[in-house]
Every structure is written in C-alpha cells, then in structure tokens.
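Obj.: predict assembly geometry.
Materials: sequence records (below).
Method: joint structure prediction, all chains together.
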Amino acid sequence: MAMKWWGWGQPDKGYALDRKPLFWPFLERRLGPALGEAAPVMELAAIALPPSRLSAEHHKALSAIVGADGVTTDHAERVHHSYGKSYRDLVRIRRGHVPHAPDAVVYPRSHDEVQAVLDCAREAGWRVIPFGGGTSVVGGVEVPPGQVGVFVTLDMARMDRVVAIDRESGTATIQAGVFGPALEEQLGREGYTLGHFPQSFEFSTLGGWIATRSAGQQSSKYGKIEEMVVGLRLATPKGTFDVRPIPAQATGPSLKELVVGSEGLLGVITEATVKVHRVPAVRDYRGYLMPSFEVGIRAMRDLLRQELRPATVRLSDRQETELFFKMREEPGSPVEAFVQQAGKWVLTRGGSIDFEGRCLLLVGFEGEASAVVSQWEVARPILKRHDGLSLGASIGRSWFRSRFDLPYLRDTLLDRGVMVDTLETATEWANLHDLYQAVDGALKEAIAKNGVAPFVMCHVSHVYHDGASLYFTFAGRQTPGRELEQWAEAKRAATDCLVRNGGALSHHHAIGLDHAPWMREYVGSIGIEALAALKEAFDPTGYMNPGKLLGPSAQASTPKGV
Amino acid sequence: MAMKWWGWGQPDKGYALDRKPLFWPFLERRLGPALGEAAPVMELAAIALPPSRLSAEHHKALSAIVGADGVTTDHAERVHHSYGKSYRDLVRIRRGHVPHAPDAVVYPRSHDEVQAVLDCAREAGWRVIPFGGGTSVVGGVEVPPGQVGVFVTLDMARMDRVVAIDRESGTATIQAGVFGPALEEQLGREGYTLGHFPQSFEFSTLGGWIATRSAGQQSSKYGKIEEMVVGLRLATPKGTFDVRPIPAQATGPSLKELVVGSEGLLGVITEATVKVHRVPAVRDYRGYLMPSFEVGIRAMRDLLRQELRPATVRLSDRQETELFFKMREEPGSPVEAFVQQAGKWVLTRGGSIDFEGRCLLLVGFEGEASAVVSQWEVARPILKRHDGLSLGASIGRSWFRSRFDLPYLRDTLLDRGVMVDTLETATEWANLHDLYQAVDGALKEAIAKNGVAPFVMCHVSHVYHDGASLYFTFAGRQTPGRELEQWAEAKRAATDCLVRNGGALSHHHAIGLDHAPWMREYVGSIGIEALAALKEAFDPTGYMNPGKLLGPSAQASTPKGV
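Observations (raw structure tokens):
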C-alpha cells in the first residue's frame, strides 16, 4: 500500500504552497473565489463498503496458493484497491463513495501463483482485476458498475525482483510488480537503467507501464515502453503465454504488440524482458525561452530532424510558462536567477520581457559526456535560429529534481475546491498547433459553460520523427454538487475534439473505463471487432478486467459459462 | 510483368561468371562435379496450366470494376503469377510444373476498385491472393495445393503513386503497389527517401514490404518497415479499415502492428503513410577485416552501444569472406586493390594474411557530412580496439553498387546444377554466435546426408540494441530427381534448429507456406489461437490468401458459407 488511500503519493508528503508565495495568489486570481465549501477527506473507517462476497472456502483456496498473508478482505485494503488516481477517483474516494470495491485482494509471489489464481477464478466464476501501482487515471483498476459476482484484485507488488541482467544483449528480465524506484535501484547497482520515468514513476510498476503503453519523460531517447519491451510472460485464462525475446522478426502480426496495451483484458503480465542502458554519465537539461508556442514547435521539430537523440524536449505554452514562473520559490532561487538573466537579455536588446508571449522550452541530453557535448553543439544553433533565449542549466536541474511532484498538487487544489485534471494526446507535426488550439478552445468553452473561469495550459513533449504529444492541464472552480458532471463535460468536450481532429485518443494514459466510449469511433468497427476477437481468444469466458478498453458492450456483464 | 517468369530480375540481365574468373572455379572445387544434367528452362508456351475456372460472366463483372485491360486469364500472366522466387519456385517453374495457377489476374487502379473486387470475390466464393512484386521466397503468393474453386490474384502494380508528401511531419502517403525504384524516384524528386532497400528492392513493392515485415539493408538507421509505417489503409472482406497516422498512442493493442506482417490474410494493403527522410548528403561505407567472426560480432555490438546510428553494419563469416574475395573481378579492380592493401598491412607486421580466419565487416554511415564524420570518429577507435584492419571506402562503394545483384546468381547456379538458397533469423547478442554455429552445423549435416559436399556461409546484419539477424546461404550439388526433397531436408533441419535455439522463425522473409508448419511451435498454441481469431475477425469466410502464415489447419479448404 504505497500511496495515500485518498490521494497521491507518500502519506507524509504534500505540495507545500507556502514555499511558492506567488503561485496560489496568481491561480486564485484566475480561478475566482471558491463556490462553496471544499469537501474534506472522509475518515477511512467511516467508508461503507459492500460486504465481501468471497466465501470462507474460497478464502482458504486462495490462501493455499498465495499464503495466508497473501489474501485479504481487509477494509482498508479493499478501499485502497477500489480506484486509481484520477480526478474522478479522488472526488469519489474523498466523500467515501465506494459502492463497488473488490471482494478480496490477492498478492501472488510468482508467475505460477498468478496462473493458479486465474485458474481458480475461472472455475469459481470470479472476475479478476490486475493491479500494479494503482495510479491509473482512466479507471483502469476499478470494479465497473452493473457487474455482479465476486471481484478479486491481483496486486502484483510482491513480484518485485530483477530476475537477470544480460549484459551482452543489453536486456534485463524483470518481474512485473516492481515499482519504479526499486527497479532502478536494482538495475543501478549493476550500472544499468531502464530509462522509463513517467510522472507516476515512484508509485507505478513495470507491468502497469506495459499494460497501459506508458511513456516516460525521457521517451525521446529510451522510447515508449513498447519500444523497451522485447519479451513477455503472461498468465492468461488459457495458461501461460510467452512472447520470446527476439530483437526483430517477420513472423506475422506482432504478438508482443498485442499484449502491450492490453490493460489486463488478455491476462496478467508477470514478467518482461526489456532493453537496459548504462546509467548515463551526464545529464544536461537546459531551458530556453522561445518567442511563441508555434515557433517553439518548429524548433522542436528541427531538433528531431537532425541526428540528435535528446532525452527530453518539452515546450510549455504561454499559460503553462507563466504558471511555471509563478511557481518559483523564494527570491534568490534558481528560478529567480534565470528570470533575472532573461531580464538582462531583454535589456541589452532594448525590449521589455513579455512572459505572456514567450514559451519555456526544456531540452535535455543524457549519455557519455562527449556525446552530450557534441549533441548540444548541433542543438544550440537550431534553437538560436528560432530566436531561443538560453536560460542555462539551473532551470533544467530544478525541473529534473521536481519532475515527480506535480501530482501532489491535485490534492492541495482539491482541498481548495478546485477541479483540476490532465489529458493527453498526440498528432503529427503538421497538425500539432491546430489540434492544440482546438482542444484548448473546447476545454475553455466546456468549463465556462458551468459559469466558472477556465484555466487551461499545455505542453508538447514525447517528440517523434513525425509528431509529438500534447499534454493539457485544465482547471476551474468546483461547482458544488456537480463536481463530477462538470468534470465529465470538460473531458467529453476535449475528447470529442481531439478524436475528431486527428489526435490520439490517448498518448500514454491508456483507455480504461473513461476513454472506452470513444474507442469505436477511434479505431472503427473493424478495429473493435479485431480487439474483441483477441479478447475472446485469450479469455473466452470474459473474466479478465471487465469493462476496460472495449467498454461494457464488447463483453458480457457476467462471465460466460458461469 | 517486371521479372523473368522463370527466374530473377530483368529479362536481359544475368549474373556474368566470366567477369569473375576466380569465383566459379573456386565454388566448383568446393561443390564437386555436377551429379547430372541440370534441368533447362522450359518454353513458356509449353507449360500446361489447368484451364481457368473464371466464367465469362465473372470476367465481365471484374472488367466492369477494373476496366477490360485490368483483368486477364492470359497464359503467360497466369504462369507469372503462379509462384514467388524461392528455390522451390524456380525448380518447379523451370520444369513447367504449375498445377495450381490462379484462374485470373486482376489489376486494380484504386482502393475502391480493390474493395469492389473483394466484395465481388466474397459473393462469388473466390479466393483472393494479393500480389506485389512476386518476390516472395516463402510461397507467399501461390495457390496452395488441396484447394478447389476459383483463385483470383490481385496484382497491385497499377497503384504506384506517391499520393502526398507532408514535409512538416516528415511523412508520405503512398499507394501500396509501387515498386522500390519508382517510389524512390518520386520521393527523390522532392528531396526525400524512404530508406528501405531490401535485396529485392528493384522488384518488390511497398505493400509487399509491409505485408511481410521486410527489412532493408539500411534498417539500422531507417528501421524495419514496421518502424517506417505510421498509417495504413486496408481493403478487407468487411470493408475499408484505416489505421490513423499517429506518432504514438496508448489505445490498446497496436492495430498497425496487427496489419504489418499479415501476409494478405486480413485484407489488401492499398495505401500507407510512412516516415520519409531527406536524401542523405553523404553515404560513407567502409570495409574492415576482423580477426574472427566472434570478435567481429563483439565489435558490431559495441558500435551499437554508442550513440551511433550506422545505416549498415554487416559482418561476413570466414566462408562468406573468402567467397567475397573470390568474387573480385579483373586484377586492378577495387577489390584487388584492397587485397593488396591487406597484404601490405600483414607484411609490415611480419605475418601472412589468413583469409580463412579473417572476416569482412562493412560499416556505412549516411546523412549530413558533419554527422557522418563525427560518427566515424566514434566508430574507428572501437573497430581498432577489436583489431579491425581498415580496407578503406572502395570496398564499401563496390558492395553498395552491387547490393541488389546476388539474386541473379541463383539462376546461373541452377543452370549448373547447384541447389542454392538463403534463410535468415535473428536472436539476442548473447546467443548470436551459438545460434550461428548450431544452424551452420545443422545445414552442413543435412546437406551432406545426401552425399553432396555442403557449402554454407553466413553474415550478421540488421543490428539492434539487443541483437542482430543471421543470414545464411547454403548450397550443394543438386541430386537429380530429388532436387526439392534435398532442399526441404536442409531447410527443415535449419528451421528446426533455429526455432529450438532461440532464433526468430524469420527475420524478414516472412512465413508464407514454407514456414507455416513451424508457427505453432514458434508462437505457442495461444499465439496461434490469437492470430486465428484475428483472421476470423477480418475475414470470417476465410477467402484471403489461404494457407499462408497459419497453415492449412487454421483455415477451411473452401471458404465458409459457399
């Protein structure tokens, strides 16, 4: 149970607004006053759960597989495993609204135990929800409404070992339940890194990354998770399925690519073989101020057109840039320093600095010192050509240091009656700015419809040869009593907009329950039929993570044959 | 009809042995004398085909879709479309053994025409074989034995246009029937290249590359075809299926990766959006002599561990190296020059040159001049550290110039009573040398069992972070009357060996009819069921390219519902 049951991250850690004196006053001015009392977090013990439907006999059967301490129907455990960490989840859990908790949580220690639990579930007619770190923001780990029967959540946290490192092949075989820090610690002892650092890194697992097609902040160098995975072991309703670790092949459709992104519908990923890299000798992240979002996008694309492999390229729009500046800590901090530097630069040119227009671009290279230096030599003239103003390395270091902190802010804002969520997409370079404007406009319009001032910001990151992702943050005052409807309206407007304007339905958050209603429009009916056929092939009775990805329509509400 | 009906390539071009005076005597010494008269190529007109079963009415229906000149039951056309270009195909076609020719060949001009032909086929109960350049070496385009009913081959050659180039996104949308040279010519006019140059380049098509998961000789820089494709249009038995061109996504299993490698079983690829690159300013290919195959492999791997992106890295084993040297043309040629250079180097060290032990390594960089120079600066010390002897750029140029010529040699050798074929696999670096030795041994043993001297050689190419491919050429004197059995024995021994020793069943030749018997062992029964379910989802009546990939067992011998 790594995280707070009611919010993000370590129980003793939060997002301290008092150390950022400019931030909350700025945001509060934008959002306007609270429209009511913010809902406080309920006491854990006061949350009423439906009683567990796991029989004593079945409890015993599970204990025989995973050990007595590996199966629990404990109240706190069931609450903790009820939801992921989306805005919707946090609103529901804060008010203790948990009508569909899992009936039991099971902690297997090995592939064979996972397989045995699945076999047991099939016979008993249970539904099974695989659970990594529980950081899903799309409803990927919850019991969907309208389902009857026993739900067992399979928490993979005990399967947390790096099994083997193959130095010659540059790969490692790793159990799927390992969390980011433990994974990097075990690899790091041998001088290796996976290079996968999503914002959820501290609280998410290898298996979760693979099941959801996760992207780390250094994806431009190390790839998205699907590019890291070379082999897989899956426990499925039909038995063990191994995808051989082979570098490349011409043996029909890629079975690896069927499993990556399968969101627990085909089985449980228990182990993966992934590419690993030497821990970089140097990490050099630097900030630039670009004249506009559009120019910044062109500069990013031009960087990618060279033989460069930056680890991170991340461009904030003017709104996010402004907020970033307001988030600086005390005067004299690194952020303060670069603001001064920027001011100096402007003075020497006889202009005045306009943060409203300028956009912050972060560029980071990692690797051998010489390779980093030579890549900067190519990158600098490109950024200069696009009128980029160098802010130096301190801003890069400060971003890097705090790169996993932002999710904590959500709880702090919820305490203040603010709706805040993020959504992400991807599209081709030629469409990037148009899609940005369309989604930005759709979000603002939908939020404003509820009579609250919208706050929307965005950054471009995860750059590819042909395009990049857009990551939006949207906020507004909560309208009391309509917190979820208000959020759903904004989410729906944005998702409609991005799907109809050439964007990915998701770039790295996955589908889960929340995006499933758009899947048919997104992949077409033939695509849905293909995915449903796959589901049927692996899981004919339909008991693996029901309702996710394909939505309720593609699956029976009770397992077949039960 | 781009190629000779009975062999490889342009009708007026062959592999001239007389310009390589050392080559044939050397090979003949190794192979021993011919064991009988080599079978001559039969007259085209003398080949007896089963009569076309396409009714006049159906001929008319097809003409209404593709135009009168777009449908033919002509004898030469049917012969030409009967087989691909494998050793098995050439042996059969030379002796005029064509018991199962397609009943008609249809040349659609657009996606809608392809879709209309498929709809027509479904109603009429025909089977359909999509046909690109017909260069399959695994039986990918033939009418399989044991099938009854009408077979229509869909030749995509008229769909040969680059539809659009998106300079901003670095992509191009291209019709699937375009041949390599026409594709590069159209892109080249705008300053772009796809960068996909398989050995079949001159006679194969974009759609064929995608359907078979092809790899080009510059795959280490530009990727295998699956890494080039970003979007797809498919005509399927259920209608048009579009895979959106999106750089990356987290929207379930990859639908793109389902279509790439589908070998015509799911539908017909009519158009693709692919990444394109600026035509490289510089191509710099150089040769090195490495002390041994094992050391050469380590050097390749070390090159890949740096921030380098060579276009080509290719290491011949001692046998292939020796043959390469024997293939030199007249004295005074570039090859002669580097042999002299090598000799000089050996003399200065007081040793004697031992080509038996040394292995030829080709390394090529492409791109901006400065990037090529700086990559060589990193590469050179690595090659030197592994005792690589530089042979300079002339050998690289000579390899580059003749890189599409070798398939012609097969016909020349067939004329001389030689069985010769190639096969390829891929595995992780740690397993590469072991797999090489195992397959090399299996081939030699199987060939020798027929009482003929085996000639087996191999190169490593298509390098990846975690491994590389192995490409074997095997030869021996044909045993008259058992030419196909003798070949099948060697092929079977090698394939059993590579599948059981961690190798890919194919790295870039695909599955077709020839590798299908190994698919269940290779991907497991769950994998087969998943692929069969996909097939069923796209093509419920089973009329698309029957017998390929999944073998006859996974499909009815006549379309269902007919």
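Conclusions so far: The radius of gyration of chain A is 24 Å.
To do: check interface contacts against the pulldown list.
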